[in-house]
Amino acid sequence: MSKKYVYLFSEGNRDMRELLGGKGANLAEMTKAGMPVPQGFTISTEACTQYYNDGRQINDEIMGQIYEYIGKMEEIVGKKFGDVSNPLLVSVRSGARASMPGMMDTILNLGLNDEAVEGLANLTGNPRFAYDSYRRFVQMFSDVVMEMSKTEFEKIIDEMKEAKGVKMDTELDADDMKALVVKFKALYKEKMGKDFPSDPKEQLIEAVKAVFRSWDNPRANVYRRMNEIPYDWGTAVNVQAMAFGNSGENSGTGVAFTRDPSTGEKKLYGEYLINAQGEDVVAGIRTPFPISHLQEQMPEVYNEFVEIATRLEKHYKDMQDMEFTIENGKLFMLQTRNGKRTAAAALKIAVDLVDEGMIDEKTAVLRVEPKQLDSLLHPQFDTAALKAAEVIGKGLAASPGAACGKIVFTAEEAKEWAERGEKVVLVRLETSPEDIEGMAAAEGILTVRGGMTSHAAVVARGMGTCCVSGCGDIVVDYDAKKFTLGGKEYKEGEFISLDGSTGNIYGAAIATVEASISGDFRRFMEWADKYRQLQVFCNADNPHDAQQGSDFGSEGIGLCRTEHMFFEASRIKAMREMIVADNTADREKALEKILPYQQGDFEGIYEVMGERPVTIRYLDPPLHEFLPTKEEDIAEIANELGITVEKLHNVIDSLHEFNPMMGHRGCRLAVAYPEIAVMQTKAVINAALNVNKKLGLHIVPHIMIPLVGEVKELKFVKDVVVKTADELIAAAGADMKYEVGTMIEIPRAALTADEIAKEAEFFSFGTNDLTQMTFGFSRDDAGKFLDYYYENKVYESDPFAHIDQNGVGKLVEMAAKLGRATRPELGLGICGEHGGDPTSVEFCHKVGLDYVSCSPFRVPIARLAAAQAAIKNPRA
Ligand code: PEP
Ligand code: MG
Questions:
Q1: 104-145 pLDDT, tens per residue?
Q2: Most CB contacts within 10 A, which of 222, 235, 340, 817?
Q3: Residue from 538, 541, 559, 852 whose mutation best tests the ligand 1 pocket (most atoms within 8 A of CB)
């Protein structure tokens, strides 16, 4: 039996989104509810997929069905394609399962040709209107379907106006419009090498192909990747009879929302134009009236519209975004959908709908996109100022927020300038751990290289600082203190602005406003917390970040990266002494100097977190990261350390590795130098003992050994930890418990998780390294070639941002099972960047982890994502 690819509006309903797209399903639903909808049909998403499978061809079967449905449609609306007395004209619009700006524009008035235009003129008694519609159609078809440039058409209109000595389009009469059509068609022939298609069916097929093609245009591909919409969904095409909002003073067209999409306020919000067609409202050439004005102008139409809008909102139980047209005093609904809204509006609407008894709390929790909350947590650009600003370049949207400041090129300058009260944006080729203080001082960070898990991106997200990374178009000249972008130079001290949510870079200062957290936000998050089953921790390396995470509702710290504590100027010297030491005794001496600092940091964190779990991860990066690279720094630091330049060079050379990410790092450092683990254990245990005593608490330290791949290596380090810890606890006469666990971030650790669990009391999945090691590509460099993978549809999304469920995820799931088989009470969490990514959080919920841990600013997002995961897939 042949497959059905085409559906009349009267054959569908709202549950057929997958097949008919959102627009098609809603048109069908409104039709079913007896609302005034110009009738038509929807070509299904499966037809789109088939089009691609057939090598971008509409096959005969689908073509046959489209022709068949044109016939059915003609019967239903009582008009015929190309008819001289009563022509059928249609609009053609794309409509995917999820609403997708970035796809094809609408085509209106399709079906017009030299005969039909006369029919339209006779029917309306308005030849000017008919020919105006015709010339618009030729223009729109050429632009949208054939991808010709608009400007040449505009030029022809301008020439005509000049020849006639008039200024406005409205001053052109019917004959002028007729002449324009002739000129437009001539231009079409010249550019396309063939006549403008006069057969409405041919026009329609071309338009349908254009919609299918638009599914794969660059804008759509980028939008899909950002929103994790699968490529194989395809788009539907809606063919709908035209209603003419431009057929006189008793006609019009508009858009309206049942609630204010920017504030969520409950009132009809929207605008309309009299005597106009859809695109006129969007084009912004004429200033539309607010929808309330319609009440005076056409009270009956207004009342009917309000009644329909109210019904639609009740029906969909959500704020609706509707398009309508009035043709000679009669209202037609062209579309309805759940309206897009700001985060603040989303929260208010969700909370209000619960209060109005329309939805329950769980439904409300599902209504807000977790990622959207982000905009409520960072400073934002002033909307009007942003609109007026010019985008000079684009990088990866690495860490959200709005930043505006003066350009500086070094971390030291960032710090110095900030200390004297300047707002700065730090521009670097890439950042490294030693830039940390400058990064913290900057309003925003812009890098030329690096992907979503590059140092700059990870650290910036951790700090809640705006970051745009990997803008390869920038050419930096550090010496001349300037960079070039788009042929223009930007010098140190000049203002730029960054939008960390879009990756946009602006060449001027744009005003920002502080984000505020309203009462709705709190109430809404209480519901999320009520329904989630995963705990949400944060990654924090210092008391300030711990406090930030705590303020956002963090229930613990899932990852405290201790190396960040060593980079501060006061400590790095002792660290370097440790690294250049020739023997254990000297190393221990240097470590003794670091101990009080580290212990102090831990005490600060424990004081913020109290008895909530704090997972302290032992030293992880390769030691060379702590040593200088520039010749002048090497000389200075050798001097500081009291060694020769040659000796420091030797140390640096000896630490050089071809693949540092797979080199001497993680627990491998503690295997080589157990004294490092001894010092860190002293710092953790003493800090906990002190804070327990001071505040009368019962803190249970969680000590985490990184980069383990073999149980014996974990055991080796653990023995050092346990010996040191037990001695300290006994000496203090205390009865303090502590746990020793490990990160699972090397595939071998996942594969042997049953053995590792014999030694580990908890696992934390380090999915940054696990992704890197499983795919075998560098987390710092993959950004450079992943774009080719997206372009060629090899990958649909960044595996460092959204967990690769089929590969890396399989390792996580397996390790969790193996680990729990050995030790049923094994604690399980994730602390890689995926811990704050909604789809990855859902995955963590499904595979039974206990918690996710993410940067402090993503804690509310993870809380909401965890709640949604639990509501959608409740655990037993
Ligand atoms: C990880 O690898 O996922 C992790 C959290 O550790 P880091 O990013 O510090 O390597
Ligand atoms: Mg790691």
A1: 778 999 999 999 999 999 888 889 989 999 999 999 999 989
A2: 235
A3: 559
